[in-house]
Design goal:
The chain is mostly helical.
Length: 514
């Protein structure tokens, strides 16, 4: 039996809003087909059932098993056509494509002048909106038409089209090289993670420099600059140069504010750019600028002009709430951030089909950190279990690693000594398999393993020793990242000073306010 999440037609039907369903039925009515047409009956059935079940469909008598595949394919196509006609989906990119289709039809009918007129307007719109791939397609069609029907309306028409094609091709090649580099760096991040040694740094640096194409910044358009900044951003993240990440994420976001029309045309890139800017600000602890950037992003996303669709809604939920949580971590206001837990839980359930498992686990980790900072260690452990028990989390083992280390600390804080011993053995096995034990993690595991042999009056001295040892790594180029996942230093200081960890972090935030 087909799995609910694997049957593409069922997932598409369930993704439709009430207005989109109404639009589809109106579209079917305009086709002039019988309202009892099989594909419409299948649509109504899929809309009604909660889980995809092939037997339910066959028992309904709508279609025989041999015809089901073809009927599903036909319905899928009709829904897509209906969605394409929906005014909500009529952005500039779709409109240009539509004009290109119209021009192609006119050309095939031999109406060359009419075709060229539409193409000229579509090309101007495409270039104005940085849609250079479509613009290049338009020029190529213009060249084909001109070879069959010389209009003589513009002198040196052949030269003009040849120059346009060359310029657009060069810009598209530049974009392709930069986007390839950006994608490859992102792939390295997923497969290998951040650089962990000088040898890693050298290898990544050589790869980046050898694949970065030569360019002059003033010759680049919006699209080329966007991919350039993305490539630099991923390189900066890989080598853990977070000031550089902040610089290029700022350039990325500023590019959109300099070209506000692109926010509407490329809302996903706008959201991602803001997210990476906020992530960089979080890493360098620029709390005041973090708050300003988050508020500016919220204002744009909540404005009437910002595009609205399912994909954008899911990304906006993910990025806004992850960074709202980060703001409370930066400022040490853990108790004030607890209201976000219900919002995040609701959003995860609502957007689960459009958010990958990794990002869901990141949200759970942030919630766990929120409860840990608030002193609620048992609830912290419950959220960490959601990550630790997830057998499918393969792409980001570092998240699993830090979840286990935080779980150890939370078990200790909660006084769950028996569970601590079990957790230590389990964490050791995991880290040995992972073969990625950082110095900070080694020191933490060593400290927690020795807790059973330490007398109560010696505990303060052991906390001090660990604090002194870990402070060495706070600014280490390859070890400092451990403190971004879990502020162990502040936790130790809370024990040394006998004060809540939230107070320690809040004081540091006020001292670092910029």
């Amino acid at each position: 039996m087909t799995n609910t999440h694997k049957d593409t037609l069922f997932v598409l039907v369930k993704s439709l809003s009430k207005s989109e369903k109404r639009q589809f039925k109106l579209y079917v009515g305009r086709l002039g087909v019988n309202t009892d047409a099989k594909f419409l009956a299948l649509f109504n059935l899929l809309d009604k059932i909660k889980k995809y079940n092939e037997k339910t469909i066959l028992d309904s008598g709508i279609v025989k098993k041999a015809q089901l595949s073809n009927l599903k394919a036909h319905l899928y196509k009709q829904i897509l056509v209906s969605l394409r006609l929906n005014p909500v989906n009529q952005n500039i990119r779709v409109q240009i494509r539509e004009q290109l289709d119209f021009a192609t039809i006119l050309y095939q009918k031999g109406l060359y002048k009419q075709s060229l007129k539409i193409l000229d307007k579509a090309k101007a719109t495409a270039i104005e909106n940085e849609e250079k791939n479509i613009a290049y397609e338009i020029v190529e069609l213009e060249k084909i038409i001109e070879t069959q029907y010389i209009t003589r309306s513009i002198p040196d028409r052949a030269d003009e089209l040849a120059i346009q094609a060359k310029e657009l091709s060069a810009m598209n090649v530049m974009t392709s090289k930069l986007s390839n580099l950006s994608l490859q760096l992102y792939g390295i991040m997923l497969k290998v993670g951040y650089v962990q040694s000088d040898a890693d740094y050298k290898r990544v640096k050589e790869y980046f420099e050898s694949h970065l194409p030569k360019y002059r910044l003033h010759d680049l358009g919006f699209r080329e600059k966007l991919w350039l900044y993305k490539a630099h951003l991923w390189y900066s993240f890989l080598i853990q140069d977070f000031l550089s990440s902040y610089r290029y994420a700022s350039k990325w976001v500023d590019l959109f504010y300099e070209h506000p029309e692109q926010i509407h045309l490329n809302p996903v890139f706008f959201l991602k750019g803001n997210h990476y800017l906020l992530e960089s600000l979080f890493y360098v602890k620029y709390s005041s600028q973090f708050r300003q950037t988050l508020e500016a992003m919220e204002t744009v996303v909540e404005s009437r002009d910002f595009p609205k669709n399912d994909n954008i809604a899911s990304l906006a939920f993910l990025y806004l709430n992850a960074n709202r949580l980060n703001l409370h971590f930066l400022e040490g206001t853990f108790s004030k951030g607890l209201y976000l837990v219900k919002i995040v839980e609701y959003g995860i359930n609502k957007h689960r089909d459009r958010i990958d498992a990794h990002h869901i686990m990141v949200l759970y980790y942030k919630i766990a950190c929120l409860y840990f900072g608030n002193g609620d260690n048992k609830t912290c452990i419950l959220y960490l279990k959601k990550i630790i028990n997830n057998k499918n989390l393969k792409m980001r083992e570092d998240l699993m690693c830090f979840a286990r280390v935080l779980s150890l600390v939370a078990h200790y804080e909660a006084g769950m000594d028996y569970h601590l011993e079990v957790q230590l053995k389990s964490t050791y096995k995991f880290l040995l398999k992972m073969n990625d034990l950082h110095a900070v993690q080694q020191e933490m595991i060593k400290f927690l393993r020795n807790l059973g042999n330490i007398y109560p009056h010696e505990l303060q001295g052991e906390f001090q020793k660990l604090h002194t040892q870990l402070k060495k790594y706070e600014d280490h180029p390859y070890e400092k990242r451990a403190f971004l996942y879990l502020d162990i230093i502040s936790w130790l200081e809370s024990h040394l000073q006998n004060r809540p960890v939230a107070h320690i972090i809040r004081e540091k935030a006020m001292a670092h306010t910029r």
